[in-house]
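Table S2 (text version). Query chain:
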Amino acid sequence: MTTLSATSRWIKSLAVEPAPLRSMLDIALKAIALPLAGLAVFLLLWSGAAAKIDTSLGKFPGPSAVWEQFGSLANEHSVEREKAAAFYERQDKRNAARLAKDPSYQAKTRRYTGKETFVDQIATSLVTVLSGFSLAAVIAIPLGITIGLSKTLNAAVNPIIQIFKPVSPLAWLPLVTMVVSAVYTSSDPMFSKSFIVSMVTVTLCCLWPMVINTSVGVASIDSDLVNVSRVLSLVPLKHVQKIVLPASVPMIFTGMRLSLSIAWMVLIAAEMLAQNPGLGKFVWDEFQNGSSASLSRIMAAVITIGLIGYLLDRTVMQLQRYFSWDKSSATR
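Corresponding structure-token output:
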């Protein structure tokens, strides 16, 4: 009987143990298998469709052609960096020789002005979008909190926001370009005018979603929390710090995610239209180039733009999880 009961318990344990294993398999299926399956189907459809599309520059690029261009673009970047290193090495040698002959010589190092590579364009666009987004956040979040706390101010400012919110930032681009050219007239500027123009354009498109979401989040704070603040007699600054910000963090970050995704799209378009350095200019230059590899290089840029946009959104979402008390508010 003892042996039989022990065997029975062992059989029951086998029936219970697969549950965690089944849960792990479900998680692996959702997190890995399904995305990979979706990607595989997309690549097959893309490859099949590309083979049937003929353009003036040849066949539409499939996945293999685009992958080859990624390698080519990486090699071009490596070659350009080697040229830059050799350029600075030659300068150092010349300066050292001149100083040996004339110790009073003021050595100068000229900046390498070679072709900007695909990687350089990515870095330029990232710096621009993050700079414009950060400037917008510094303006929009305090403004949104102020508007959300004051119904009077909200009534006064809301019409202005609603008028300018639907205006495409690209419509502002000519005005921004002229204003920056007129105001930013330093003989030795810290930043190039093209960077300032692109950054200001990004800032303009980032402002409205952040202002609106922040003000709505602040205005919709639970009345119980407001009453707690009154009972504790918190001064306005403490009220914002202890009550307003923690309660409105999810809405603030929702506005930030919306703003950043819009900013990334607008920046690429602005770089194409204004021919400012960045991924947008890379796409336009390749389109104008019209070589047999142009379509593959443009498609590589399109995929890169999409991946960077996705990573930027995931980064803000992780920040939201870190700062928000409601972890479930940042799940997608």
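Notes on Table S2: DSSP finds eleven helices and two strands in the chain. The two ends are 55 Å apart (CA to CA).
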